[in-house]
Every structure is written in C-alpha cells, then in structure tokens.
Amino acid sequence: MSWVARKLGCGTRSHCRSTSLAFNRIEDDLHNIFPALAEINEARGARLYWEIPSEARSFGRCDVEIQSREIEPRLEVRGDIARADNRGQTTVSPNSILETWFVPDFPRKYSISKTTGANCRLTGVG
Q1: 122 and 80 share a domain?
Q2: CA separation for the pair 122, 117 (Å, rounded)
Q3: Residues 94 and 109 in one domain
Q4: 42: domain range?
Q5: What's the CA angle centered on 114, arms 123 and 1, to 5 degrees?
C-alpha cells in the first residue's frame, strides 16, 4: 500500500492510516489484496508495472520479470492488477500499460466472488 500513500501524498503508510479516509478505504478494500509470495512482494516494492522484453525470471519457474524500475507479472493476473488499479476511477489512464491489460483479461470467478461475497459483508464495499 506504499504506492497508494505516495499517490495520495499523505506521507508514510502509518501516517496515512491516521490522517486519510481515502487511504483507509483503499487499504480496507479486499479488491486490493492479492496473494503473492512474500519475497516477490518485497522485490516488487514501488516498481512500475511494465512489459519486459526478456524472459529472464528472477524467481525460478515463477513467471515474474524484474528490471531496475519495472516489474512484469504473469499474464494470467495482469487484468486483475489493472482492475485493482482502476477501482474507483471511471476510466483507465489512457496510454498506460494497465490500459492494455484491462480489456482482454476478464474477471475470474474468485474476483467476482470478492464483489458479491465476503468483501461486501466485511467492509460494505462492493
């Protein structure tokens, strides 16, 4: 959620939790939570999502490529990432890499169940 804090300009995650209602709503929204290996999540950090031309994998057989400032997630989750980034906005930022990922990757069953199931019951968001 560090990237959200930077995007909102509310300071550190701790500071944002105590000062920003928008940050708290975003952090509490289960649509923004994705399972990931801790070491990949840590390596991802604040890197930009991008398509990296090489297929040099930094985590063995796991389909994740990382360069100095960019990360490329596996093909199957790119639409999920684009939808999470777009949630609460009316359009995807034009000409962004997320725009190209948003359209061809339709939500899977677990993404839809987040909206209709536990997310609504736990957070009232959905």
Answers
A1: yes
A2: 9
A3: yes
A4: 35-73
A5: 65
Query: Residues near 12 by Cβ (< 8 Å), separated by ≥ 6?
Result: 5
Is the Cβ–Cβ distance between 101 and 78 less than 8 Å?
yes
For 34, other C-beta atoms within 10 Å of its C-beta total 13
Mean per-residue pLDDT over the chain, rounded: 76
Same domain as 106, residue 88: yes
Q: What is the dihedral of CA 54, 57, 58, 63, to 10 degrees?
A: 120
Q: 29 and 39: one domain?
A: no
Closest CA to 114 of 101, 103, 125: 125
Q: What is the pLDDT of residues 17-65, one digit of tens each?
A: 999 999 998 888 776 777 778 888 888 877 888 888 877 877 888 888 8
Q: Exposed (0-12), middle (13-18) or buried (19+): which is 78, by Cβ within 10 Å?
A: buried
- pLDDT computed for residue 12 by the predictor: 92
Residue 24 CB coordination number (10 Å)? 13
